[in-house]
């Protein structure tokens, strides 16, 4: 069942009330939600079976990205991230994109690449011809190594041969991994095929491993934002639109800027990847290799003014995400996050992650081309400084407000504001006691 992802005033609610609102706006059970996320979603005994030398677990904030509408469906998006502003900024930009109809997303079939490397290959052309001649047998062998994948509708789809020169030859086996991230499946295929491929190529076997440049598994997102929806307190929407377009051009011409532009995109993408128990290092490696595919590092997303006067954004990147297997087997928090998102496939999950990436990018470019990002950051930074100074519960917001209004976000100012607040409270309490 599809629920709305618009929950006005959500950020103002205390954590308990937010959990209730999310349970009501999804199919999650409140008790289970509170129990699972209350302890970081992973207990120590399970962590101990997940990696080596475990001492405990390490928590990060789990938040919900709002306002996301993709291919005419709403999503409440779990996001795990430590950086202030990322969730608020993505939710805010998603609301603007929603005004233009939401994100439109297309995705490739979930095809990963297994690489098998050979060296000392005596005749690369002959080796390639032999591999090609054995294509059907190789695909059969690959499928035999991954029977449960074949049962789920996936399996080996093709082979490719790449001559890297100097006797180095690499064979790619393309494998449709369906709803898995696919690393284990693809590595199994690479190892299973290596002896046969070695006999065919006459070379010595080298590495047998997936490629994280999974460029057969791309997601493409487009969004239209009505110019008026971009307006800030003191800048008209048309000017903001033009500022975002100029910021995009900057990234298109300058790899130094493109790296930061893409970092802003990955703020959103990684937060979803992490929340859903996926391998964010794999995603990062793939995204940046893809960004550099032309030989020049480029932005993953670009923005233009359309003939309609609105702002149009396009993002494309490879995304190897899974909704079965891997961390999901062991991490109750990640499983719960996926249930909140309620996607039907790994491709749909990739679509949501990429959409949040485009929203994060829009939020950053809009802020950078108007008032700058420090203003927004400072409001959140003020809260963490207030907390570090010892403020609790509602005091955090009150102290942060004082710091923000004074434009002085320091520990010293926070301590003074907290002391003043507590002093004023105790004077009021004394007054009541005396009456
Ligand atoms: C900060 O985490 C991300 C930004 O630097 C992205 C950008 O500059 O586009 C704000």
Report on this model:
There is one protein chain. Helix 15 (394-406) packs across helix 16. A hairpin with a 2-residue loop joins strand 1 (62-70) and strand 2 (73-80). The protein has helices at residues 15-24, 30-38, 44-50, 86-99, 124-133, 135-145, 147-151, 183-201, 237-253, 255-275, 280-291, 332-341, 346-368, 374-388, 394-406, 411-434, and strands at 62-70, 73-80, 104-107, 111-119, 155-165, 168-176, 204-210, 218-225, 301-305, 311-318. It has 16 helices and 10 strands. The chain has 435 residues and is an alpha+beta fold. The mean pLDDT is 95. The chain has 3 domains: 10-107 and 217-371, 3-hydroxy-3-methylglutaryl-coenzyme A Reductase, Chain A, domain 2 (Alpha-Beta Complex); 111-211, Alpha-Beta Plaits (2-Layer Sandwich); 376-434. It has a 4-stranded antiparallel sheet with strand order 3-8-10-9. It has a 4-stranded antiparallel sheet with strand order 5-6-4-7. A two-stranded antiparallel sheet has the order 1-2. Bound molecules: (R)-mevalonate (MEV). (R)-mevalonate is lined by residues 83, 260-261, 263-264, 267, 364-365, 368, 373.
């Amino acid at each position: 069942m599809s629920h709305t992802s618009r929950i006005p005033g959500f950020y103002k609610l205390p954590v308990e009330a937010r959990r209730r609102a999310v349970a009501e706006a999804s199919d999650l059970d409140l008790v289970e939600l509170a129990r699972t996320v209350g302890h970081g979603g992973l207990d120590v005994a399970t962590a101990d079976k997940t990696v080596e030398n475990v001492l405990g677990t390490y928590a990060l904030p789990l938040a919900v990205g709002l306002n996301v509408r993709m291919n005419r469906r709403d999503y409440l998006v779990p996001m795990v991230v430590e950086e202030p502003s990322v969730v608020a900024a993505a939710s805010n930009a998603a609301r603007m994109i929603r005004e233009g109809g939401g994100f439109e997303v297309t995705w490739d079939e979930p095809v990963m690449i297994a690489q098998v490397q050979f060296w000392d290959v005596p005749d690369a052309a002959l080796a390639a011809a032999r591999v090609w001649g054995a294509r059907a047998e190789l695909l059969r062998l690959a499928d035999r190594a991954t029977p449960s994948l074949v049962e789920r509708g996936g399996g080996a789809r093709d082979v490719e041969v790449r001559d890297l020169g100097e006797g180095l030859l690499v064979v790619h086996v393309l494998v449709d991994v369906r709803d898995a991230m696919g690393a284990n499946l693809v590595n199994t295929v690479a190892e299973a095929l290596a002896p046969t491929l070695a006999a065919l190529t006459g070379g010595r076997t080298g590495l047998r491993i997936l490629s994280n440049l999974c460029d057969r598994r791309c997601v493409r997102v487009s969004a239209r934002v009505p110019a008026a929806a971009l307006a800030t307190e003191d800048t008209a929407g048309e000017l903001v639109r033009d500022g975002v377009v100029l910021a995009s051009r900057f990234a298109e011409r300058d790899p130094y800027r493109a790296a930061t532009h893409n970092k802003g995109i990955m703020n959103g993408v990684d937060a979803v990847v992490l929340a859903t128990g996926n391998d964010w290092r794999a995603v990062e490696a793939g995204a940046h290799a893809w960004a550099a595919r032309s030989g020049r590092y480029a932005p993953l997303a670009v923005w233009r003014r359309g003939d309609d006067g609105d702002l149009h954004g396009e993002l494309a990147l490879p995304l190897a995400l899974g909704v079965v297997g891997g961390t999901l087997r062991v991490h109750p928090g990640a499983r719960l996050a996926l249930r909140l998102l309620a996607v039907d496939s790994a491709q749909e999950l990739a679509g949501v992650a990429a959409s949040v990436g485009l929203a994060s990018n829009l939020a950053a470019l809009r802020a950078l081309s108007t008032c700058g990002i420090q203003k927004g950051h400072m409001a959140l930074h003020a809260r963490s400084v207030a907390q570090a100074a010892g403020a609790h519960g509602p005091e955090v917001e009150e102290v942060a407000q004082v710091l923000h209004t004074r434009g002085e976000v320091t520990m010293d100012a926070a301590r003074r504001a907290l002391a003043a607040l507590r002093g004023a409270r105790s004077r009021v309490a004394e007054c009541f006691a005396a009456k």
